[in-house]
Protein: Uronate dehydrogenase
Organism: Yoonia tamlensis
Amino acid sequence: MKKLVLTGAAGRLGSYLREPLTKMCDELVSTDMVADIGKTLPGETYVQADLGDLSALEAILAGADMVVHFGAIGDEAEWDAILHSNIIGAYNVWEAAYRQGVRRVVYASSVHAVGMHLKTDVIGLDAPHKPDTYYGLAKCFCEDLASLYWDKRGVESVCMRIFSCAQANNARALGTWLSYGDLIHLVERSIDTPVVGFTKVYGISNNDRVVVDNSKAAHLGYRPKDNAEVFAKEILAKTPPLDNKDLANLCIGGPFATVELGNSGVAGLGVVDDRKKI
């Protein structure tokens, strides 16, 4: 491809995508709200932009083949903040993509669009939306937005429902872990699959204790290789018995299932900020 755009390039997950994406195109345009992203890679340029600015996004997406959209608040937050970054910002991405003739949006959706479903249900991709927070509700909106823009305007989308893409350091992660290597593989397959239309896929590794069924996304060719079971002995040795009546343990959204609306869910996950240094 000639040009790819990556939103959210300054974020933790974005930091792992920048280098692989430069290998898939002649020009990678990375964008985020920070003034300076630091060192750029060969073939990469950086543009500071607010997702709330449609005209800025139109300029950035001009001539792009696809946009990999990871820019958003990555946690539960107050409604006004979620509305601006995660809902209006996403609308602007799809609308700018349509106006500029961009073929496909590869979108960082989330487990939290279906976070109130039980782990023991092992839901498929046809399970109804069941958000656990404003953050999850925004992901539901964006998935429906992606579906609408495919049906009415011909913009393809892959909505990757990302699970626990961080260091596996808690019992929940044994079933929900997504390694950085598998994240990169998923994004690559979402880009290089010839035709996707509107596709949903669970962003989760090949865990023995996997909590969802990804079979209806087989056409993407996403075949995760990593397995959180390698961490099981160490994690379970330090984990006391879990309360089997606590929704944070029962639901696939984990602590997002029990936090008050507007309050951080990530705070209960012990996420390590191990973003990749360029």
